[in-house]
Design goal:
The protein is of the alpha/beta class. 47% of the residues lie in helices and 15% in strands. The longest helix has 27 residues. The structure holds NADP nicotinamide-adenine-dinucleotide phosphate.
Amino acid sequence: MSSSSSSRTLKIGIIGFGPFGQFLSKTMVKQGHTITATSRSDHSHLSTDLGVSFYRDMDEFFEADNDVIMLCNSILSLSQVVKSMPFHLLKHPTLFVDVLSVKEHPKQLLLEVLPQESDLLCTHPMFGPESGKDGWKDLNFMYDRVRIRDEAVCSSFLQIFGSEGCKMLEMTCEEHDKMAARSQFLTHTIGRALSEMNIESTPIDTKTFQTLVNLKESTMRDSFDLFSGLFIHNKFAQQELKNLEAALDKVKQKLLDRTNKELDPSVSNNR
Ligand SMILES: NC(=O)c1ccc[n+]([C@@H]2O[C@H](COP(=O)([O-])OP(=O)(O)OC[C@H]3O[C@@H](n4cnc5c(N)ncnc54)[C@H](OP(=O)(O)O)[C@@H]3O)[C@@H](O)[C@H]2O)c1
């Protein structure tokens, strides 16, 4: 690990080299960090293009002497991935970071399985390959320093996002999940519902309708695994889905009540 006054270049190993892992690796490589990756599928060709060393074998990946191991696999695969991790091959205390879009679930699971000497930083970059394609300035980055003893490595990792201009937001994993159920999960649910309705641009779009089409398109770019993970592994999501259904019923009822009044000749229309 080479050092400078405030941050160091790190050796970062990425587990799960799908769309989001690839996206993050580009900026990390650009900043001078050394990136290795492993994944269920063989992404070795693409990795070479990105300047990332790819290991097909998890044991070799763990032996690669990383400062940081960053979990970037799907939410649904976390318990399976964690079971396949050969912690005994780690050569020194390592900072584990996860970037999953739910936070209590990885925190609890990782605290159960990580070696005592390994640090844990739970994070959620609140952006993706689309919203972050023109840079990360002013985009939100949530983090919870769950178990940190090596301050230098942790702050160098956080600096990757801070130095790109992200808005760094420290909070607990539980606080994150509560808010994300009302924001991100709701956004994805409405986007998916709009997709089920096959909404498309029309020649007479309003600007507001265009935002709905954009919402549908951007949520459908994320995998269904990701969306299901937001629901299955965030304990607050089920209630928000119920709230959404109840709200839709309320709106519908208000419209029906008004329709009945309008159509009932015994009720005055001057209200
Ligand atoms: N996309 C975003 O905008 C965004 C933003 C913030 C956080 N995140 C989080 O980042 C993570 C990755 O997201 P993503 O967009 O790349 O898509 P994703 O569909 O959530 O995850 C894809 C990744 O999970 C791996 N994976 C899936 N099933 C697996 C299994 N059964 N065993 C082992 N690995 C498995 C895939 O490996 P292979 O590619 O090798 O098949 C791939 O690396 C997720 O936890 C997501 O919540 C995503």
